[in-house]
Structures are given as C-alpha cells and as structure tokens.
Amino acid sequence: MPIAEHIITLQFFSRIDDGASMRALIFDTETTGRVEPDLIEAAWLAVSDLKTLEVEEQFVQRYRPDKPIEMGAMAVHHILEEELLDCPSARTFTLPEDTGYLVGHSIDYDWGVIGKPDVKRICTYAMTRKLWPEVDSHSQSALMFHFSKDRKKTRDNLKNAHSALADVKFCRILLNKVILAVRPSSWEDLWEFSERARIPETMPFGKHKGVKIIDLPDDYRKWALNNLTDMDFYLRKALES
C-alpha cells in the first residue's frame, strides 16, 4: 500500500509564500530497464514551500510491469519479478492532480516512464552541471560525496541509492543546494533556470563535437537544423539561438 506521512525537516529559510498553487513532487522511478521501460517502483516527496522544502507528503509504491525486468536493471535495483506479482499494475499509476512541477535527477527519463504527463520538469542534473562544472561527475551519488561533510556516513547512506524513495531524499538534498545558489523567487523561476541550464554550450556529437555552439560555422548550424530531424529539443534551441 502507498505510504503517506509528514516529515519534520530543517528550515533553511524563513517560510515565505511564493504564491504557487501547485505542488512540486521530487520524483524517482525504478523500471524494467532501458528498452521501452515499464514502471516497477515510484516514489515522491511533495513540497510546496520553495524556501524550506518542507515535505508535506511522502509516497512509495511498487507496481507489476507488463514485461520482464532486464538483468542489468535488476542488478542495479535488486527488485525481483516474483516480488511484484501482488502489486497493482504499472498502468494504474497517476500523479496527484495538484502536481505542477516534477523534480528529479535527469527527470525526463522518469517523466517518460509514467507517460509524459502535462507538468513542468525541473532537472537537478542539468542545474548542478551548470552551477558546479568543475565537479568530475554529476551523478546523484557523486554529488552527494562532493557536498558531504562526513563521507563515511554518506557512503553508508548511498548503499540504498537505487531505491526510489532513497533517491528522492538524496535529490531533495541536492535541490536545496541548487536553491541556496540560485535563490529563485518561485517554482516557476526555478523551472526557468532549469530550462536554461538544459541548453548545451558545446556540440555533443559529430565532426564539431566539443566546439562551442556559438563558434560553429553558420553553414553547419543550418545543415544540422535542416537535416537532423530527431535532434534533442534543447540542442535545437541552442542552435537556433
């Protein structure tokens, strides 16, 4: 059954109402794998106050997929198919109706797994890469070590890093680091920063891989826009601008 509970959290800011009527969900999934993934576990922390990230509700639930779990995925999350036989179907998952923003590390993957609902996505992976480019890895676990004041404790906590509920709790810590750095005035403001952070500054592939997009030859830029029809949305924005 779903778990819902209130959690007392440290308040990093005094409470300020930013006027948002929709909640943000810090969200994560575990799935059957990378190939057309089915949901097998979903977890979220509901927060509305941007300044404190006080958790209003916590949810975690496992689901029964319609396809086998890939061995690679099983090796990561350690969830077995036989443990899911009595769980609700993955097709029954829905977000709460008052969800305005979905927050996560590389959130587009999890958003896609649940059917790409009509909510705005805030990507902590993109924002941390933008804010701390000097870090050699921007995986969630690597960033937890980067910000840690007690790495032995962090190492012990990260042993559960591929549980969806553990991951959203870690993501909340990273989200707080981003908020302290950016000081957004609202969830919309934070979403806009996330959108800007997603736009690449260098070409990620091809003969100009690694070249700053502002330095690309005009003829190549035009060719890419006209011929690469399956181009990433944010790369297209970078080339167009």
| Class based on secondary structure composition and strand pairing | alpha/beta
What is the CATH-assigned architecture of the largest domain?
A: 2-Layer Sandwich
Our estimate of the beta-strand percent is 5-15%
Indicate the low-confidence ranges by residue numbers: 1-20
**Major sheet summary line:** 5 strands, mixed
**Inertia-based shape:** globular
Notes on the protein architecture:
Helix 3 packs across helix 6 (164-182) and helix 3 packs across helix 7. The radius of gyration is 19 Å and the shape is globular. With 241 residues, it is of the alpha/beta class. The termini are far apart. Helices cover 36% and strands 14% of the residues. The protein has a 5-stranded mixed sheet. The chain folds into 2 domains: 23-198, Nucleotidyltransferase, domain 5; 200-241, no CATH class.
Q: Which labels suit this protein?
A:
disordered N terminus; Nucleotidyltransferase, domain 5; alpha/beta; 2 domains; 9 helices; about 240 residues
